Amino acid sequence: MKAIRRFTVRPVLPAALAPLSELSRNLRWSWHTGTRDLFRDVDPALWDASGDDPVRLLGSVPAARLAELAADEDFLRRLGESAEDLREYVTGPRWYQERQAESPDDGLPAPGGELPAAVAYFSPEFGVTAALPQYSGGLGILAGDHLKAASDLGVPLIGVGLLYRHGYFRQSLTRDGWQQEHYPLLDPNELPLTLLRETDGSPALVRLALPGGRALRAHVWQAQIGRVPLLMLDSDVEENDPGAREVTDRLYGGGSEHRLLQEMLLGIGGVRAVRAYCRLTGHPAPEVFHTNEGHAGFLGLERVHELVQGGLAFESALESVRGGTVFTTHTPVPAGIDRFDRELVAHHFGPDAELPGIDVELILRLGMETYAGGDANVFNMAVMGLRLARGANGVSTLHGKVSQEMFQGLWPGFDPEEVPIASVTNGVHAPTWVAPEVFRLGARQIGERRTDRALSVGGSERWDAVADIQDSDIWQLRRELRAQLVDEVRRRLHVSWRQRGAATAELGWIDEVLDPDVLTIGFARRVPSYKRLTLMLRDQDRLLELLTHSERPVQIVVAGKAHPADDGGKRLIQDLVRFTDDPRVRHRIVFLPDYGMAMAQKLYAGCDVWLNNPLRPLEACGTSGMKAALNGCLNLSVLDGWWDEWFEPDFGWAIPTADGSATDDHRRDDLEAAALYDLLERRITPRFYENGPEGLPDRWIEMVRRTLTRLGPKVLAGRMVREYVERLYVPAARAHRVLEADAASGFAAWKNRVRAAWPGVAVDHVEATAVGTTAELGATLALRVRVRLGELAPDDVEVQALAGRVDPEDHIADATPVPLKPTGAPDGEGRLLYEGPLALDRTGPFGYTVRILPSHRLLASNAELGLVAVPSEATGEAAGVLMR
Ligand SMILES: *Cc1c(COP(=O)(O)O)cnc(C)c1O
């Protein structure tokens, strides 16, 4: 029989055990080994059965066991210590509080001058722990790591997301290797969440207006991530009609309208949830809003709407909001960017839908692809993200560059290098991803506190201590982690084969799968085509030989989920699974279904080599290899994302790529797969199996050591969040303050005036006279430029000379701008004369040009308006190539 209602009866803990409840609800346990050990000791068998989930554990412990613990002095002492440790962690001063005293000097006016009072961080998914399955892959895990690192650093962040009642899907396989999806129903009462309530005890309700008089309402659940609250909106509330209830059913499910409603709830509803949270808890209001990928971009519109309701004009409100907005783009793959039909968006905004009081045309204009190659009938969330944010970034140096090219159309007239998209390379939350065994080795070396600080905050001097660890200790650690992985793989494989319909009696061979002394390679990630799950199968005979080599075999563990709508991805999984089913190799290569955080934590630590072979440059950053590195696993990867930036032959391998050459995709896969096999055969396996005088693979161990000392301090989420604070949040908070004050309307009006007057701005004439001898190193040119500014004044613009090396197409590379100075009054034709010296400071082909840009102290970059005036062809005789 099916129940018509379900609810959860929460356990009543004996008073002495009350702190367990608090410890279970703060997800800090997910990265704090001491707290996890405490929960395990409540009941080891139930802990395992709960899948490491304290809330579930406490719901299942028999009353007799609780009574026993309540009388156990030793347990109570540990409980008291853990509770005190959490209290100290949550309330004590941390990096941010120490940093608060200083005030950086970047030239911007800085009333207050200090760090933002709070930052709201929006993301469509958050991967915090397997016990809160609200993520699909890297984007979500990164968001979870961002919150945890912010907590460690004391950054006053508020996370904002949706609570999906089915999360993302669970994956299993059919007998012949086809992916099956399951959507377990999550009951928020069984998750580590509390409902945000009004002072009268009723649930806080966020409401959005839908067309046709409908409404979309949501409750707000709060997860506590150390010091950081994470607000999750849940539309499955009784007041909603059935359609509205389903808005937060699944992560990345449903059609276009479903996605739009999810994103409106996340962005618009999310801002409303933040306001409610601050009102009810007294938390300071965020001065900076950070949107993790474009999905949450409507948050900017809601804030504009708030200001417009307060009486500000749209344009002024927009400036004020832009000032405090940071947008991070995460993918150069078009399918990763949300694009909606213009009409669909138009339908959901306006007088009888959301954000009444803002002209729908103004909203549409923000997302329109108004550039060459764009589609004006499409509303692009990344484009809106860029237009609504004053600070934008990609997630590795290479991805920053790729994004500048990809979005160059939004800043016509500027070279890609000038497109105002910075980069902050991703990092990973070490306390989450470092195996307890690795942590213990570190603690033995430099003590627990310093290890903890090295992992959360960074600082390379602490990592240098790894250099002193004995070879034998490192090797023993590696073997222990590998052996644990082997056990885990056998357990999971057994479960998988049972799901595939095998009887236990057929599965004896699984006890022999993998070998704790064989070089272990890991490959796990989502399965979009650019990640090339099956590149390793390109030459199956060669792979078979590697796997079954008599002296130097390798073993491979593979995992990954394909998006439910991606049959191509499912076919790749099937190809791989069929290969792994072959009795000749099934003891050396396995596919584990249901890749998620719990599996990942074991997998990264237990592998010797982490493989990544995306189609360069489509991997924006990639973070699994960083997590592997923190456990002493070596990276073998295409030079894409973070690896392009930090690879050194001392601690890993670069798979040569054929990108940029004229080869077709098939040929490219052939070339790159062959390079991969070559590396494995000639470089990697010999090094792993070659013992030095001590009987240990000392050259391999040295690479492990360098991975830890050199990559360790860089790949940390602590390093990443500190960069976000210093390079993006602080400038955004200051810009926000200045623009919010009276300047907002002035700045917006100035922008309008400049835009309107720009057609009258022109470079009319350029001449250069050599001072001294012509064109030789060390000489100086005197530039004289006549410009027309139309309605604008010299203060509104900067006239620049740009000089540098020229390529055969006369394109100036690495141009350095030199500002020119106005001299005297306008001539008879109303033209102004600008002058300045230009030093010939390099030999070889050299060229220069001049240009006029808008200039204002509040512009984030001089490309911000996308306006530039350059010499016309006719004037070009002087502004061009000077010499070759
Ligand atoms: C880290 C992580 C990812 C992202 O890995 P990439 O290398 O960026 O593909 C995906 N899924 C899980 C479970 C992870 O832990």
TrEMBL record:
N6-(pyridoxal phosphate)lysine: modified positions: K627
SUPFAM superfamilies membership? UDP-Glycosyltransferase/glycogen phosphorylase
Q: Which residues form a coiled coil?
A: none
Q: Name one GO molecular function term.
A: pyridoxal phosphate binding
Top EC class per UniProt?
A: transferase
Q: Which reaction does it catalyse?
A: [(1->4)-alpha-D-glucosyl](n) + phosphate = [(1->4)-alpha-D-glucosyl](n-1) + alpha-D-glucose 1-phosphate
Keyword Endoplasmic reticulum recorded: no
Q: What is its EC number?
A: 2.4.1.1
List, separated by semicolons, the cofactors it needs: pyridoxal 5'-phosphate
Kindly indicate whether the keyword DNA damage belongs to this entry: no
Q: Name one GO biological process term.
A: carbohydrate metabolic process
Q: What name goes with this protein?
A: glycogen phosphorylase
Native organism: Streptomyces spectabilis
